[in-house]
C-alpha cells in the first residue's frame, strides 16, 4: 500500500495502482466542492466543541464518492474529516482504494493515513540528528558509506529506545535527546575484579531514571546488537 500527502494524489499514479492491485491512501487538497460535502459535519463539530466546557477538539468523519471535473478518469472513495479546534474549523480529505467495509472512515484516516506523518518525522530525525544529510563528498561511494553509518546509528538508537528504555522517560525520546541526555553524560568509571562502577553527578538531568537505564543489565541485553563488555573487553 502506498501512503502519501496530496502531492502524490495524481491520476496517473492512482490509475497505475488500481491496475496493478496496489492499494493507496493519499491526501486530497481541499476545495469548495469538497468542503460543501462535509458542511453539515463541520457545523456539528463546531456545536460539539462549543458545548464542551473544556473546549476539547471535536472530530467527525464522512465517507463519500467524489470525482474531479476534469483530471480524474473515475469516481473514487474520499473520506472527509471535519474537526473543530479552539483556533477554528479544519477540514481535511483523503482519497483511497480501500473499501469502507475493510477500513471505516475513522480507522482509515487515523490508523492508515496519519502514521505517514510519523514516518516522515523518523526520516527527519535521521537526517537532522544522525547526519544523514552529510553527503558532500566528491565520490558517490563515500556518500553512500556515510549514509550507511547513519542508518546503522539509527537502527541502534531505535532498538535502545524501544527495548532497553521501554517504560522510562526516554522511551519516546528523539535521537538528539538520547545523544545529549544519555550518550554524552560525563561519568567516572571504576573497574574492580567483580564489578564495573559508574559514578554520575548528583545533578544529572535523568538521575531518577538511571537505575532503570543502566543499572539493569537485563534491560540492556534486550537491546539486540548491544553487549556489555567486561574489564578484559570480552
Number of domains: 2
The largest pleated sheet is described as: 5 strands, mixed
Helix content: 40-55%
**N-C termini distance:** 45 Å
The ordered H/E elements are EHEHHEEEHHHHEEHH
What does this structure look like?
This protein is of the alpha+beta class and 234 residues long. It folds into two domains: 2-113, no CATH class; 122-221, no CATH class. The chain is built from nine helices and seven strands. The strands form two sheets. Strands 1-2-5-4-3 form a five-stranded mixed beta sheet. The model is unreliable at 222-234 (pLDDT under 50).
Describe this protein with a few key phrases.
alpha+beta, 9 helices, 41% helix, 234 residues, five-stranded mixed sheet
Topology readout:
Layout: E1 2-4, H1 11-19, E2 24-27, H2 32-37, H3 39-51, E3 58-66, E4 76-85, E5 88-96, H4 105-113, H5 115-129, H6 140-164, H7 175-183, E6 188-191, E7 196-199, H8 210-213, H9 217-221
Parallel strand pairs: 1-2
Antiparallel strand pairs: 2-5, 3-4, 4-5, 6-7
Compose a concise summary of this entry.
Helix content is about 40%, strand content about 20%. The protein is an alpha+beta fold and about 230 residues long.
Amino acid at each position: 500500500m502506498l501512503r502519501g500527502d496530496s502531492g502524490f494524489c495524481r491520476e496517473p499514479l492512482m490509475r497505475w495502482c488500481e491496475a496493478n492491485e496496489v492499494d493507496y491512501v493519499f491526501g486530497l487538497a481541499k476545495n469548495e466542492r469538497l468542503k460543501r460535502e462535509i458542511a453539515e459535519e463541520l457545523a456539528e463539530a463546531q456545536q460539539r466543541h462549543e458545548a464542551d466546557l473544556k473546549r476539547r477538539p471535536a472530530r467527525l468523519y464522512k465517507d463519500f464518492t467524489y470525482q474531479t471535473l476534469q483530471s480524474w478518469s473515475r469516481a473514487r472513495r474520499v473520506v472527509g474529516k471535519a474537526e473543530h479546534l479552539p483556533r477554528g474549523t479544519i477540514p481535511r480529505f483523503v482519497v483511497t482504494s480501500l473499501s469502507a467495509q475493510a477500513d471505516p472512515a475513522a480507522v482509515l484516516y487515523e490508523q492508515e493515513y496519519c502514521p505517514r506523518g510519523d514516518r516522515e518525522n523518523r526520516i527527519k530525525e535521521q537526517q537532522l540528528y544522525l547526519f544523514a544529510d552529510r553527503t558532500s563528498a566528491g565520490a558517490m561511494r563515500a556518500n553512500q558509506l556515510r549514509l550507511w553509518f547513519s542508518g546503522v546509528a539509527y537502527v541502534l538508537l531505535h532498538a535502545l529506545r524501544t527495548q532497553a528504555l521501554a517504560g522510562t522517560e526516554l522511551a519516546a525520546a528523539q535521537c538528539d535527546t538520547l545523544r545529549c541526555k544519555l550518550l554524552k553524560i560525563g561519568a567516572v568509571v571504576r573497574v574492580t575484579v567483580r564489578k564495573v562502577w559508574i559514578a554520575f553527578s548528583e545533578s544529572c538531568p535523568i538521575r531518577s531514571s538511571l537505575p532503570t537505564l543502566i543499572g539493569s543489565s537485563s534491560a540492556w541485553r534486550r537491546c539486540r546488537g548491544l553487549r556489555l563488555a567486561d574489564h578484559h573487553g570480552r
